[in-house]
Write a structure and sequence with these properties.
Blueprint (H helix, E strand, L loop, with lengths): L2 H17 L14 E6 L9 E3 L8 E6 L6 H8 L7 E6 L4 H11 L5 E3 L4 H5 L7 E5 L5 E6 L4 H12 L1
Parallel strand pairs: 3-4, 4-5
Antiparallel strand pairs: 1-2, 1-5, 3-6, 6-7
Length: 164
Protein backbone atom coordinates (compact mmCIF):
# COMPACT_ATOMS: atom_id res chain seq x y z
CA UNK A 1 0.00 0.00 0.00
CA UNK A 2 1.44 3.41 -0.95
CA UNK A 3 2.08 6.01 1.77
CA UNK A 4 -0.50 8.55 0.52
CA UNK A 5 -3.15 5.85 0.27
CA UNK A 6 -2.34 4.52 3.76
CA UNK A 7 -2.51 8.04 5.21
CA UNK A 8 -5.86 8.67 3.52
CA UNK A 9 -7.22 5.35 4.77
CA UNK A 10 -6.10 6.18 8.33
CA UNK A 11 -7.74 9.61 8.16
CA UNK A 12 -11.00 8.14 6.88
CA UNK A 13 -11.00 5.53 9.64
CA UNK A 14 -10.37 8.19 12.28
CA UNK A 15 -13.18 10.37 10.91
CA UNK A 16 -15.58 7.43 11.00
CA UNK A 17 -14.65 6.62 14.60
CA UNK A 18 -14.95 10.23 15.73
CA UNK A 19 -18.36 10.56 14.10
CA UNK A 20 -19.72 8.10 16.65
CA UNK A 21 -18.61 10.47 19.42
CA UNK A 22 -20.69 13.38 18.18
CA UNK A 23 -24.00 14.26 19.77
CA UNK A 24 -25.45 14.14 23.25
CA UNK A 25 -23.58 11.97 25.72
CA UNK A 26 -24.57 10.22 28.94
CA UNK A 27 -24.49 12.54 31.94
CA UNK A 28 -25.37 15.66 29.93
CA UNK A 29 -28.62 17.56 29.50
CA UNK A 30 -30.62 16.08 26.63
CA UNK A 31 -30.98 18.39 23.62
CA UNK A 32 -34.51 19.74 23.35
CA UNK A 33 -36.51 19.11 20.20
CA UNK A 34 -40.02 19.24 18.82
CA UNK A 35 -41.32 16.51 16.53
CA UNK A 36 -44.68 15.89 14.84
CA UNK A 37 -46.09 12.43 15.50
CA UNK A 38 -46.80 10.44 12.32
CA UNK A 39 -48.32 7.31 13.87
CA UNK A 40 -48.29 4.63 16.52
CA UNK A 41 -50.09 4.47 19.87
CA UNK A 42 -53.43 3.50 18.25
CA UNK A 43 -53.36 6.71 16.18
CA UNK A 44 -54.38 8.94 19.08
CA UNK A 45 -51.13 10.94 18.88
CA UNK A 46 -51.00 11.30 15.08
CA UNK A 47 -50.62 14.94 14.03
CA UNK A 48 -49.73 16.16 17.51
CA UNK A 49 -46.34 17.58 18.36
CA UNK A 50 -44.13 16.47 21.21
CA UNK A 51 -41.48 18.75 22.70
CA UNK A 52 -38.97 17.01 24.93
CA UNK A 53 -38.79 19.84 27.48
CA UNK A 54 -42.56 19.55 28.05
CA UNK A 55 -41.96 16.01 29.32
CA UNK A 56 -39.64 17.19 32.11
CA UNK A 57 -40.55 15.45 35.35
CA UNK A 58 -41.17 12.16 33.57
CA UNK A 59 -38.60 9.57 32.44
CA UNK A 60 -38.36 9.36 28.65
CA UNK A 61 -37.10 6.71 26.23
CA UNK A 62 -36.40 7.80 22.65
CA UNK A 63 -35.92 4.98 20.20
CA UNK A 64 -34.49 6.04 16.84
CA UNK A 65 -35.91 3.86 14.10
CA UNK A 66 -36.23 3.29 10.34
CA UNK A 67 -38.36 1.03 8.17
CA UNK A 68 -35.34 -1.06 7.20
CA UNK A 69 -34.25 -1.64 10.83
CA UNK A 70 -35.13 -5.26 11.61
CA UNK A 71 -34.30 -5.02 15.32
CA UNK A 72 -36.28 -1.81 15.92
CA UNK A 73 -39.69 -3.47 16.43
CA UNK A 74 -38.22 -5.84 19.01
CA UNK A 75 -36.81 -2.91 20.99
CA UNK A 76 -40.14 -1.05 20.87
CA UNK A 77 -41.86 -4.12 22.29
CA UNK A 78 -39.29 -4.43 25.09
CA UNK A 79 -39.33 -0.79 26.24
CA UNK A 80 -43.12 -0.39 26.14
CA UNK A 81 -43.91 -3.44 28.26
CA UNK A 82 -44.32 -2.91 32.00
CA UNK A 83 -43.09 0.67 32.34
CA UNK A 84 -46.26 2.76 32.56
CA UNK A 85 -44.56 5.79 34.17
CA UNK A 86 -42.02 6.10 31.34
CA UNK A 87 -42.89 8.07 28.19
CA UNK A 88 -41.64 6.00 25.25
CA UNK A 89 -41.50 7.44 21.76
CA UNK A 90 -39.87 6.68 18.47
CA UNK A 91 -38.20 9.08 16.08
CA UNK A 92 -37.90 8.04 12.44
CA UNK A 93 -34.50 8.83 10.95
CA UNK A 94 -32.37 7.82 7.94
CA UNK A 95 -35.50 7.04 5.95
CA UNK A 96 -38.27 8.69 3.95
CA UNK A 97 -41.35 9.85 5.82
CA UNK A 98 -43.82 7.62 3.88
CA UNK A 99 -41.64 4.60 4.75
CA UNK A 100 -41.75 5.50 8.45
CA UNK A 101 -45.54 5.97 8.35
CA UNK A 102 -45.97 2.57 6.64
CA UNK A 103 -43.54 0.92 9.07
CA UNK A 104 -45.39 2.25 12.11
CA UNK A 105 -48.75 1.18 10.70
CA UNK A 106 -47.63 -2.30 9.60
CA UNK A 107 -45.85 -3.04 12.88
CA UNK A 108 -48.72 -1.85 15.09
CA UNK A 109 -46.35 0.06 17.36
CA UNK A 110 -47.82 0.98 20.73
CA UNK A 111 -45.68 4.09 21.21
CA UNK A 112 -46.05 7.38 19.32
CA UNK A 113 -43.51 7.82 16.53
CA UNK A 114 -42.40 11.11 15.03
CA UNK A 115 -40.33 11.88 11.95
CA UNK A 116 -37.12 13.91 12.00
CA UNK A 117 -37.93 16.14 9.01
CA UNK A 118 -34.61 17.95 8.73
CA UNK A 119 -32.22 15.54 10.45
CA UNK A 120 -31.59 17.93 13.35
CA UNK A 121 -32.69 15.49 16.06
CA UNK A 122 -30.44 12.76 14.67
CA UNK A 123 -27.57 15.26 14.49
CA UNK A 124 -28.09 16.51 18.07
CA UNK A 125 -28.16 12.95 19.40
CA UNK A 126 -25.31 11.69 17.21
CA UNK A 127 -27.42 9.08 15.43
CA UNK A 128 -25.34 7.45 12.71
CA UNK A 129 -26.25 3.78 13.21
CA UNK A 130 -29.47 2.00 14.16
CA UNK A 131 -30.95 0.82 16.37
CA UNK A 132 -30.12 3.52 18.92
CA UNK A 133 -32.12 4.08 22.09
CA UNK A 134 -31.56 6.92 24.56
CA UNK A 135 -32.79 6.91 28.14
CA UNK A 136 -33.52 10.24 29.85
CA UNK A 137 -34.29 10.76 33.54
CA UNK A 138 -36.95 13.02 35.10
CA UNK A 139 -34.53 15.97 35.12
CA UNK A 140 -33.84 15.75 31.39
CA UNK A 141 -30.39 14.22 31.82
CA UNK A 142 -29.38 11.62 29.26
CA UNK A 143 -28.59 8.59 31.42
CA UNK A 144 -27.67 6.04 28.77
CA UNK A 145 -27.26 5.62 24.99
CA UNK A 146 -27.61 2.05 23.78
CA UNK A 147 -26.56 1.08 20.29
CA UNK A 148 -28.14 -2.23 19.32
CA UNK A 149 -30.81 -4.30 21.02
CA UNK A 150 -31.45 -3.66 24.71
CA UNK A 151 -33.62 -6.02 26.70
CA UNK A 152 -33.65 -8.30 29.74
CA UNK A 153 -31.68 -7.38 32.85
CA UNK A 154 -29.78 -4.54 31.17
CA UNK A 155 -33.07 -2.90 30.12
CA UNK A 156 -34.57 -3.35 33.61
CA UNK A 157 -31.51 -1.78 35.20
CA UNK A 158 -31.59 1.27 32.91
CA UNK A 159 -35.35 1.72 33.33
CA UNK A 160 -34.96 1.63 37.12
CA UNK A 161 -32.22 4.28 36.95
CA UNK A 162 -34.28 6.71 34.88
CA UNK A 163 -37.39 6.12 36.99
CA UNK A 164 -35.69 6.76 40.36
Amino acid sequence: MSRPFAALAALLLMAALLQGCAGAEAGTQSPDFTVRIVGGADGSWTGRTVTLSQLRGRPVVIHFTASWCNACKRIFDAVTTGYADVFVMGVGVMDRKPNIVDFVRSQGLSAPVGYDEDGSIARDYGVNTLPLTVFIDRDGVLVERVLGVVEGERLRSIMERISA
